[in-house]
Amino acid sequence: MTPAPTLRPRRLRRTPALRRLATETRLHPAELILPAFVREGIDAPRDIVSMPGTPQHSLDSLRRTANAAAEAGIGGIMLFGIPERRDAIGSAADDPNGILNVATRAVAEEVGDALVVQTDLCLDEFTDHGHCGVLDPDGGVDNDATVDRYRAMAIAQADAGSAVLGLSGMMDGQVAAVRDALDLAGHEEVAVLAYSAKYASAFYGPFRDAVESELTGDRRTYQQDPANRREGLREASIDLDEGADIVMVKPAMSYLDVLSDVASISPVPVWAYQVSGEAAMIEAAAANGWIDRRRAIEESIVSIKRAGADAILSYFAIELAGWLR
Ligand code: PBG
Question: What number is the ipTM of this complex?
Fold first, then answer.
């Protein structure tokens, strides 16, 4: 007969009270950030078919959602703008009357200090070709010319009242350049969130519907190869050297190893983004009755935190905060 085990980890799983006391990772609403889309020229929210529960907002519905986020006690909101008109250089991005900057002002005014108002700093929503930067004559994305555009965007977003700028374009030198532009403009107080390890991912699919992206082709000359782990650490180290206040890994669930690596070396907060396709997989499977929606959401977010994220961007932020109460 097999001898009785001497080590019995099941002891700490025996009752709900023991499990509650033995849990290693606990979620809190304050570490959740809601990404939200605002579209120019609409006066009621519009559904995004691939993103149930996440609409394209009008300014009014965005204000209401920001209030709901504040009431739910989440930490922040990350704004994305969808302009009516696009051009080669994304002119609407640094126009104070551009939709993202108008919405930032509206939300900052609405929620005051109850929520950290943050903005996506990237050109893809604003360019008619859909790339995250401006193109050179051969159709490639011109790194340094793009970074100049980011400098102008940064000042416009800071002027509008964004407290944290989410640099998601993956151009070389973008963090140092934006920091410099902000400081020169007297915006030393505005923080830079670097999407440090951002992979060229299939999981951004629904997001491209959300922003009505015009992209043909892909982003592989600037976003990272999903096969590369070491490179994620290098990107984060460079952004830290350039003065990033927060570094991020994106997507989250397929990159938990990268997240864990970055968390182990970073002296600043490390965030992760549970992207649109990650949410869509949960929604679609749950809609088919194949997984338990609430448990899948909770498990996905707790896994991201367990891997090392200090805060998490998630389309489920408000709903999850409600369950955590
Ligand atoms: C770039 C940006 C993207 C996402 C966030 N910022 C799209 C991309 O890089 O193609 C994707 C987020 C998501 O899928 O939820 N502006």
Answer: 0.97
